Amino acid sequence: MIIVLKPSVTPEQVIGFTTKLTSDYGVNVNRWDGVHSTVLGLIGDTTQVDIEYIEAQDIVESVRRVQEPYKKANRKFHPENTVIKINDEVSIGDGSLHIMAGPCSVESEEQIVQIAKDVKKSGATLLRGGAFKPRTSPYAFQGLKSEGLDLLKAARKATGLPIVTEIMRTSHIDMFENIDIIQVGARNMQNFELLKELGKTDKPILLKRGLSATIEEWLMSAEYIMAGGNSKVMLCERGIRTYETYTRNTLDVSAIPIIKKLSHLPVIVDPSHASGKSWLVEPLAMAAVAAGADGLIIEVHNDPPHALSDGAQSLTPEKFDKVAKKVFALKEALSNT
Amino acid sequence: MIIVLKPSVTPEQVIGFTTKLTSDYGVNVNRWDGVHSTVLGLIGDTTQVDIEYIEAQDIVESVRRVQEPYKKANRKFHPENTVIKINDEVSIGDGSLHIMAGPCSVESEEQIVQIAKDVKKSGATLLRGGAFKPRTSPYAFQGLKSEGLDLLKAARKATGLPIVTEIMRTSHIDMFENIDIIQVGARNMQNFELLKELGKTDKPILLKRGLSATIEEWLMSAEYIMAGGNSKVMLCERGIRTYETYTRNTLDVSAIPIIKKLSHLPVIVDPSHASGKSWLVEPLAMAAVAAGADGLIIEVHNDPPHALSDGAQSLTPEKFDKVAKKVFALKEALSNT
Amino acid sequence: MIIVLKPSVTPEQVIGFTTKLTSDYGVNVNRWDGVHSTVLGLIGDTTQVDIEYIEAQDIVESVRRVQEPYKKANRKFHPENTVIKINDEVSIGDGSLHIMAGPCSVESEEQIVQIAKDVKKSGATLLRGGAFKPRTSPYAFQGLKSEGLDLLKAARKATGLPIVTEIMRTSHIDMFENIDIIQVGARNMQNFELLKELGKTDKPILLKRGLSATIEEWLMSAEYIMAGGNSKVMLCERGIRTYETYTRNTLDVSAIPIIKKLSHLPVIVDPSHASGKSWLVEPLAMAAVAAGADGLIIEVHNDPPHALSDGAQSLTPEKFDKVAKKVFALKEALSNT
Amino acid sequence: MIIVLKPSVTPEQVIGFTTKLTSDYGVNVNRWDGVHSTVLGLIGDTTQVDIEYIEAQDIVESVRRVQEPYKKANRKFHPENTVIKINDEVSIGDGSLHIMAGPCSVESEEQIVQIAKDVKKSGATLLRGGAFKPRTSPYAFQGLKSEGLDLLKAARKATGLPIVTEIMRTSHIDMFENIDIIQVGARNMQNFELLKELGKTDKPILLKRGLSATIEEWLMSAEYIMAGGNSKVMLCERGIRTYETYTRNTLDVSAIPIIKKLSHLPVIVDPSHASGKSWLVEPLAMAAVAAGADGLIIEVHNDPPHALSDGAQSLTPEKFDKVAKKVFALKEALSNT
Predict the structure, then answer these.
(1) CA distance C243 to A240
(2) Alpha-carbon B125 to chain mean position
(3) Chain A residues lying within 8 Å of D32, measured CB to CB
(4) How far is residue A245 CA from its own chain's centroid?
(5) pLDDT tens across C286-314, in order?
(6) What is the C-alpha to C-alpha distance for residues A111 and A109, in angstroms, rounded to an integer?
(7) C236: which of A114, C29, C268, D332 fits an S-S bond (Cβ 3.0–4.6 Å)?
(8) Whether the predicted model's global pTM rises above the 0.80 cut
(9) Contact D111/D103 with Cβ under 8 angstroms?
(10) Residues of C (67-106) whose Cβ lies below 8 Å from D
């Protein structure tokens, strides 16, 4: 950690501050006097150093970490890839490619079982579906809730596919006991109380990136879960908020190799939410796999007779089948290189 | 609501879709055929119309609301300003200016009581202080928690100032029973489960704007609370995330007059978090008041003998006194015009 | 074009405005009265309609285009891909993949000729190199200027590779007479005077996306060039400015399929500038090709004996060779699917 | 300047690099070895150090300036405010408040003379008006060009108001000989060739902030002009591009006190372009003045009998008169405090 002090600092203040840093955090402090400013360098384990406290000091101009503030999520201290084993067939992070597919919302047993069968046939190895739905409007459909969880389990029973679904509240953790992967949505990425409680479980967690979270903040949220003792965390890139309005979000494809470099955790990409447009799912899925993603999470919706739609960002099972074929072919070609 | 259909749509699809809209939502549908596209206009109450469902239709190119999606927070349906009465002296939204001041974190009884006395003397009419602290790092100090709440109450007892503090978890609501204003932090602005529960209380809520929330999303979060029956919501602008790195966030001063136009709810501005720099608090507070804010929330930290700091974004009581004087003088000058 | 009028509009104003629109722009106007607002729909060719003029009307609440504002760059009016033939070997946009490679700045004849030979051996079909350099600081090296152009020509002579280099000023157009592709940098994307002059030439133009340009603004800049008569425009995605600070810019990989859908112009991707980090060039290049890019532009810098560096975002010829091999193998695998 | 080296660096590389820095830039280099990294601190004048060159070194992890990269625009080296005297009545930056008012585009002599008279009566001390108009679409009205300049001069003659108008092209500089203040638009903020040529003149320059320019980049563009010898630069904040879509841009009100701290140059604020909505001009103008702006630039358009509009972001002379009164009253109240 490098601390630049203000030009106005007095020698006494520097000594006082240095002494405090040494005693509070057990770090060594190196000092260098420039023409206009004094710079301090902290040597040792600085993850415990409260950067906001340092910034808050009146004599401090700016602070910069050299070392990352996350430890358990850090590849430096855990060089090998984390592999998360869901069942005998599904191990995420081991170099294979997994697709989690299914509808935005679980609507009925017939729907979810049929989609589960369809996506399994196309090669998906996990079933996704929303039971509790975070909606911008209080007047919009909020999901089938616990009934939705039951329907997901029925679909799992019918197909053997492990299930992935979103949690929205700490008090629901018990209800998710029998769910295979618990998803934390983008809007809850910094719901630290929820993260802490999930850290006490041993459930695999799919942690979506917040709408405007930096990569470091995202890794710190993973660290919250891991600090509690649960190291089964997957990071899901789902697009970030930018000024561009053509797509709902902007897929940050660079996040994939960056996470792979900074961390040992698996990276999943959500091309459906990243773009909000079904015709963009294929090219974005291809880009994600080419950039090194461990998995994809894709919205698939079958077309009940009375519905007009396959969803703005959802694929029909037929289109999904085509996308899955291309994506797996790409993965194979990449593996052969 | 205006729906632009894709050029490829067939007349049968248009009729089927129109019929569905009419029967599902009880709206009238107006149709207009352009050279390249067909446009539908929905007439009636469209707040119940699920815009994501509409967007999801295969035949839809784009959708746009003409009417705002919020009702209870909407000035159109509630032309008069909402005034939130906290006690006999403090009514927020009635044209007067209120300052909520206090430390980022409550540290000790001595500290919080002293600051409360200081800020009261300078004209603050509410005391703020963090007991539960949302921190990016799991290793950072997380606040004094329930003890912090007790210390705030002690400070209230000593000064008479109503207290404002942040809640982080639904299960804590009972613990906040005796708090005057409950703050929802930026990271929880779309923690919909928390908003729903707060909607069932009758506590005044200070709803901070999310890091990258649009004004409409922010108003929809207020709507969540109000839909539950609690209409005592204050909106707090605290800076948004942009590409600029000089300040921690970018204060969106335009949000003040925009909220005043779109909604009847009071607007509070947080110049301390918006900038992250104490020397910017004064000019931003002045700008906020000149733009029409109903209140300010400002970090003030006293300087215990052994501390080196007045905080990167905190003011000392002396500096706060100076800022408060200028701000109240400005308010008076504006009132006289 | 759909125009939503303010609730306060009078019937006379609507009639006056409608008449004006019809007479000024030769469009038909369709009118629809909602509960709270009146909406006008314009039918006919609206590319000539000045949207800012419409927005400026006191009675107008908001305006929205249904039709894109660009014509010559629009795939709707030109369904086939534009193919830009540079020489007998290089046709950009015909389904093949081209790599433009070379140093950020041309430094010496020895350097540029050597790099040209190296990148040609690895499969690059065009040589890039900066002669006029846009620099944030007036005190930084501004390029070898016209001498740099001469050195590029020498490298072209030695290798046969066509050359790509950036123009910064209208008065330099004559100097670029013998350059194969003229690049317009991100900072000049809306230097409309330069675009207009380039529209009068018949040179292939590589138009970089502005730092925070929307896709529509970018296509409108292409339209500026094309409106002047020059239809040889390639669009170059080079990353956009976002809140994320880990990378210099955020590569908007979605822009590739979006441009391919909206326009017939070729898309080139610059993974070097998008990330600012050489180790990210490979994964981003792979992602770009998988998403459908027609070409890549990559910084390559050889390592003269006295230099310590291969550049923060530049590859050495050895690393470039490896990236090129992977990228061409990916392209072939995609073609075989 | 602080340079963090990669963990993999060898002692020989550090020595080689240090020697090079010392000899190339005449700076002293301080070295500090941490547990995971080596850090170099450069002491001396680092404005000449090419930060991109440093970043480009293979052994460099990251670089950070301690000293600002601008010199002539830097308050540290020029503590007193720059005052730009336009004529006997108008000195910008001396603590007084000046309003530049006028239409977006000059349309006719009658129009511009009438507006000039109106705004003068309301207290404006400068006349603004566009003769050369940067337009997103090549099909939109591009201004009256040199005729527009003549009409501005006629309005100046009729009222005595100095005139401000935008330049778009280096070759037009001669044509602007007799203009009082030359405006550089947001899209040309990094048109470095134009900045260099303006640096050779002695004209006052109004430099608008680029759409997504950081404060440092903006100051570096001022530095370009000043490095050429022209120190009469005013900085104009006109809103930045963010994710928020309610306003055209987001006024960065914090930029005002930040520029005043970092630089000695005057700051002008453009509330009309920042918001794109005329009803926001008043609150934003008030906020700007309260935050310390030296001047405002406001769009005013009179209402010729056949026009329906006062402009989405333009005020009528009547509304402008009201805004000007409030703004000057605020300025006076602030001066009395």
Answers:
(1) 9
(2) 19
(3) 30, 32, 41
(4) 23
(5) 999 999 999 999 999 886 434 444 467 88
(6) 5
(7) C268
(8) yes
(9) yes
(10) 69
